[in-house]
Specification:
Two copies of one chain form a homodimer. Chain A is an alpha/beta fold. Chain A has twelve helices and twelve strands. In chain A, strand 3 (123-127), helix 7 (134-140) and strand 4 form a beta-alpha-beta unit. Chain A binds chain B through residues 4, 51-56, 58-59, 64, 74, 76-77, 80, 83-84, 87, 91, 96-101, 114-115, 117-120, 142, 235-237, 240, 268-269, 272, 275, 294-295, 297-300, and chain B through 4, 51-56, 58-59, 64, 74, 76-77, 80, 83-84, 87, 91, 96-101, 114-115, 117-120, 142, 235-237, 240, 268-269, 272, 275, 294-295, 297-300. Chain A binds a DNA duplex through helix 2 and helix 4.
Amino acid sequence: MEMEKNINIKSIADRLGVSTASVSNALNDKGRIGEDLKKRIIETATELNYKQNIIAKTLKIKKSWIIGVLIPEMLFEYFFQIIIGMEEIATEKDYTLVFANTHYDSEKEIKDINKFLRMLIDGLIIIGGSGEINHISKFIDNTPTVLIARHLNNDNISYPSVFYDDRAAQINAVSYLNNLGHKNIGYVGIMPAENIQITNIELRKRGYMDGLKINNLKFNSQNLFFKSSHEYVSNLDNVYDFLKNNLFIENFQQMPTAILCQNDYIAIALIKILMEKGIRVPNDVSVMGFDNLVISNYTNPALTTTKQPKKELGVVGINLLLDIIENKSVNRKKILLPTNIIERASTAKV
Amino acid sequence: MEMEKNINIKSIADRLGVSTASVSNALNDKGRIGEDLKKRIIETATELNYKQNIIAKTLKIKKSWIIGVLIPEMLFEYFFQIIIGMEEIATEKDYTLVFANTHYDSEKEIKDINKFLRMLIDGLIIIGGSGEINHISKFIDNTPTVLIARHLNNDNISYPSVFYDDRAAQINAVSYLNNLGHKNIGYVGIMPAENIQITNIELRKRGYMDGLKINNLKFNSQNLFFKSSHEYVSNLDNVYDFLKNNLFIENFQQMPTAILCQNDYIAIALIKILMEKGIRVPNDVSVMGFDNLVISNYTNPALTTTKQPKKELGVVGINLLLDIIENKSVNRKKILLPTNIIERASTAKV
DNA sequence: TTGTATGCGTTATCAA
DNA sequence: TTGATAACGCATACAA
């Protein structure tokens, strides 16, 4: 096996007896070079199988074509749909995505962002997470950043962001159920861990409460199930186990005729639990989810739920970020995406 | 706003009146430096909020702590479970993953690998895809590479790899159904596009055929549904639509008492289609999947299926790769992971 | 149009 | 133990 020497612009320059400057100019299609020499350089480059070293280029021009993406957990579909949307656009525009899983941990967020900055990322996308932003604002202020579906506690702080309105969506859900004739509507939600606070989850619950008020339905605290888990609850199996151990249908004061859920996983698990107890959905009780997972159309009964534009969150988010990166003017834009109710078979008139 | 100058090792060196060499040695905990100076350097570094530039370091020492990962499609759960497994280990060992979606396209594979190499990745992981490897072997031979769940056409070619046996698993599935008393077993599979060839899919189908033989059941070509789609079929909705338009249950010669499927999506879609026609599962026909998606325990009826160790594929794969990167000796290892049948409610005795 | 020379931030060699 | 300096591969300001 022959010793394979690294081919760089100097290899090409030497081979042709020209300067590296000319090689660089030729290969990057800058103007300052003659057509003839340019052609010879490009020929030699392909002949030698030259590959531009992105790392060196990045060091020189301070552009990496890397976008850092912060995800709070590796949850199926919800986050991955967002990522899929981003990936298509990023690839198309020759950017590379790198991910970090922050586990809803502020310390980890700081650590991950620091790592990204040391990699000279061109921009940052933060998906979901807590309502807190102060601990990372000093980084964000110096780096093009877009927030996706992250609701900040402090409304005065504003960052470029793409989001949908969890609260308004759940208000709509309550109204939808009310229109079906349900006057006694329960709610099932889970905070996936005790020490974290996820604004989206709070907002969905508040939407339920406000929805009752707006529809002139009375709130009954017995019919609100909202617990934190001490162990991390995220996937369907976890959710099922948690509800199985913590939610006692018989504890509902006056069994609700409809139960609104924080998300589809909870709805799907709840339906399974109800059916195991011989409670029929929607005959005995209507169940409504939130997220519109792909699978929710294939459960039995198919799930009525609220669809938020997951993939579009990613697409719009990355486009916004790339606009900011390539043209500083579009900063501080906030984009609200719509939600809508997908009516299926898990809800019925009463 | 003050002009924020980049803090580098020279900033620290200048501040203390020492050389950059000493700063580097101190910060990287190399030996050649006095304890006293080292302490002062580290203090100054934190004081100035110094962040090491990974790009410059990578250029110098030719190590990026980046692992490139090739995925053939953004399919939920199957690939994402693998990724989740990898991500945990990679993060733990301070590596960063970058992904490329090859869309089962050889040209794109070459392009993506080239991009990775230009980023000076430390290693490459290739998940799934076609049975062909020649077009990228020249890259792989010079870069630590691990194949995950990619079955090569040519058995003579050997790369470090982690996999499970699709064919053997489907043979087991046929035997399982046979033991339930099913003698007329159908099969439903889809090749997601016409011009691509995915070895795993071929192997699963072959497992069905071989399984019949081994169990002394006769093969009836009328009961094998295996079509290519001209449009890309991957997610559950696609699969449902495709089957709805192409699979006519009544065309089965002598309706099978059990139908084995290529994957869980197909099984779930098939069950929905059967139920829409009033055919009961498992009373009228048993249906068996492959993959054991999380959701498959929550369908109604819950799905009997074959579980392959998705997350473990990722964990074992990345560990193997990191071993190769850090210690060239473990090369050319092939690791076979077991599969097992998860018995649920979609199959019954006949 | 082309070449010379410098620097991006780091590590590493060699000399002091 | 410490410092001066070259080198990684590239782009660019400036000179020719």
